[in-house]
Amino acid sequence: MTRKHLNIAVVMLTALVSMSLFARPSAAQAQQEQQKPSYTIPEYNAFQAANSEKDPQAKIKLLDDFVTKFPNSTLMQYVDQLYYQTYFQLKNYPKAIETADKLTALGDKVDAGIRLQALQTRVQAFSAMPFNPQAPDANDQLTKERDAALQGAKLLEAFPKPANVTMSDADFAKQKKPGIAFFDFSAGSADLQLKDYAGAVTAFKAALANKPDDAVSEYRLGLAYLAMNPPQALDGFWALARAVNLKVPDSDKVKSYLRAKILAYEQPGCDSQVDAQMNEMLQLSANAPDRPATYTIPSQDDLNKVRQASNIITVISDLSGGGDKAQMTWLAICGAEFPEVVGKIIDTQKTDAAVDFMVYTGATPEDMQAATTANMDVKVWISTPPAGNTPAAGAAGAPATAPVPPQPDVVRLQKDDGIRFSGTLASYDPSPFLLHWDQVKVDPSVIPEKTETGKHAPRKIPSK
Q1: How many Cβ atoms are within 10 Å of 335's Cβ, its own excluded?
Q2: Residues 123-143: pLDDT tens digits?
Q3: How far is CA 225 from the centre of its chain?
Q4: Is residue 156 predicted with pLDDT exceeding 60?
Q5: Is residue 271 in some structural domain?
Q6: CB burial readout 185-210, b (16+ within 10 A) else e
Q7: Looking at 263-335, which runs of residues are DSSP E strands?
Q8: Bridge partners, 436 (sequence order)
Q9: How far apart are CA 330 and CA 447, in angstroms?
Q10: CA distances from 369 to 99, 439, 442 (A)
């Protein structure tokens, strides 16, 4: 919840509690109380003097004088109320917290409306003051903040509609929602710093139940999911995507963070594959607060299993079949290097810099020998590759490999020749299917020697 959203929630909470008959007593109410033998006229006059004082520093002095003279006064709860309000005005947040805590510690001895105002100010003061996580009592501070926020959420949830309020019960319940979200958000933020990530998830989900459009709650929910042990990665990614959709502050940085986390989770063959996944997640999460149980993305372990079970024949079969299987396989093997791939040259396409061999590979030599259509485009450089054609960085930021030296002699390979090579999978066309290779090195043993001009005798398909 940004400062702007926090302030909106606080304003609405203040207005709501002010509707109550239990707000700090006015002069008329105090005069009614004066008729009872609960406090003396000097106490009443001293209280009213402090209540009427406009200068905050002078007000604190009058309140101190009141406490010195009347330490057991029944007006003390109202004095404490003036204390924390004035300390907050002076930006003395530790003293505002101290006096608000003193008031709320009285429990049911203090009216619910007054306790709510104290809890609101206490939680707001904690968020406003600098917090030192290295302080000796840092955990104690955070625990008290979390407990106060949860108490405020519970108290506001149960807060009854005052008798003098004419709105419907449903409208009154609706008016309470931003205030409840404010308290739950504050509890979740304290839990995050306490590293109680399960508690933070519960609190942020409660905040979002009452304020579904709060981008910062979504963002912090995502952080809590990802910090759990074990991390709840998919739910964390979904919450971060929701935060981006809701225009969380610094959404570009959050989007980059999300991309990095998905990369680390999957470690796909090509970094670029994550962009499509992230865009799909952003699109789907825009209208779905919770991740559907059917939505998933593969983990690094899932992709490693695909890699371990793959060879070039299974890769071509999986990719040409399309669907989820193709997507999973490509995530795993995009950018992978395969050694000792064999096939039959169906055609050649030569430029000044490279030769594209249109090649068919299959499960058996007989299958390859009979083929007339290519299923692979094998690019071999015959001169130094132009700028922009050097290898890119590998998966998850791994360093790029050195470029393969040019092989000008491959121009002697012709249609119907067999070929054996190693290379890197660069991309594929689904229909008609064609697998594109880069960083190719042809086995020199399959390249014909220079011969006199004459009829070309196709070279046999080499064994694997």
Answers
A1: 24
A2: 999 999 999 999 999 999 999
A3: 8
A4: yes
A5: yes
A6: bbbbbbbbbbebbebbbbbbbbbbeb
A7: none
A8: 377, 427
A9: 31
A10: 89, 25, 19
What is the span of the domain harbouring residue 347?
Answer: 336-446
Cis bond before residue 444 (omega within 30° of 0) = no
Q: What value does the mean pLDDT take over residues 379-391?
A: 79
209 found inside a domain? yes
**Euclidean distance between CA atoms 243 and 219, whole angstroms:** 5
Cβ 412 vs Cβ 448: under 8 Å: yes
Q: What is the pLDDT of residues 13-68, one digit of tens each?
A: 555 555 443 334 444 444 544 455 588 999 999 999 999 999 999 999 999 999 99
Asked, for residue 197, whether it belongs to a domain, the answer is yes
One-letter amino acid identity for 244?
Answer: V
Whole-model pTM? 0.83
CA distance 343 to 18: 82
- CATH number for the domain spanning 404: value is 2.40.50
Tokens read off for 51: 């209540």
Total Cβ atoms within 10 A of residue 227: 15
Q: Do 90 and 169 sit in the same domain of this protein? A: yes
pLDDT, average across residues 66-72: 96
In one-letter notation, the amino acid at residue 424 is T
Q: Burial of 124 by CB count in 10 Å (0-12 exposed, 13-18 middle, 19+ buried)?
A: buried
Cα-Cα-Cα-Cα dihedral of 340, 345, 346, 350, to 10°? Answer: 110
- The whole-angstrom separation of Cα 169 and Cα 172 is 5
Residue 305, domain member (yes or no): no
